[in-house]
Amino acid sequence: xxxxxxxxxxxxxxxxxLLSAAGWAGQAQTPAASxxxxxxxxxxxxxxxxxxxxxxxxxDPKNFTAVSPTADEVNSFLKAMWGYDENRMWEVAAxxxxxxxxxxxxVLFVADKTQPDxxxxxxxxxxxDGKHALSADKVISFGAQPFAADRAxxxxxxxxPARGAKGNELMLVEFVDLHCSTQCKGxxxxxxxxxxxxxxxxxxxxxxxxxxxxxxxxxxGLCVRKEKGxxxxxxxxxxxxxxxxxxxxxxxxxxxxxxxxAAGADPKAAAxxxxxxxxxxxxxxxxxxxxxxxxxxxxxxxxxGSALPMMSLPYNILRRIVAYRAGQDGIEVHLxxxxxxxx
Length: 343
Fold this sequence. Notes:
By secondary structure, this protein is α+β, with helices and mostly antiparallel strands.
């Protein structure tokens, strides 16, 4: 789980924090230019750098030696990643050529309005084609719409059990393991809250089993869905989350049968369906979809292409990100004030 959070936090706050970071704490630190300047015109500060009480170190125009990306392109990328956080501020400090042809090093000053006397210097690299950003352990799409490709992929292929809106303009796709103790079970309250807060969203469940027992549970669950529909699948899955101790090799058949019965399905028919190659391939296709967008563990929520580490995000932050992503994609949502009774 720690490895997963480390990787997926790239897609959220430090948006993928791109980054190796060192504190500047208000001191005038700027990166040394590694090449003679020539590529870009002087850079105007980002809008974030001119508000609040944060004072960034002075930016040296000599530190802009790469032809691509431009500071405007970097700011657009960071707005897509960080724009949901009204307290986050940044300044593009340098865009440098490197010894690798076409690879640029981007240096940022980053700060928070709530701690204006503190800040970090953060670094990422961009590829020669201008389509990807690289940190120490992650490669993601770069540009003003970094989630567009994964959003389109999910709109085309995420066809698991669903609830909420019929359209797929705002898609919340959860990749979940039916046997992951409190982690996957725990996020179901979060998903219920999201369904309440965002009636404009289509919430799709995609299986991402990590063990043989959870794979068997996933296959039988999709068979329950084929017989009784999406609502029955969610009843089936909740039954399993409530009986995680029964998902063992010895008790598996009995536990799955009970879950199918609770969902109103014929347990014998569900078991026979689960034994077929076609049913197993359906779950395999869901796993492949997750891997195709860079997921390697569960649970994870993908909001219009943006993968979020649900276990480490407070609900108020998660809700803010969903609303921001919707707005970025031209979808109007109407958020109500937070309720203290939310689970």
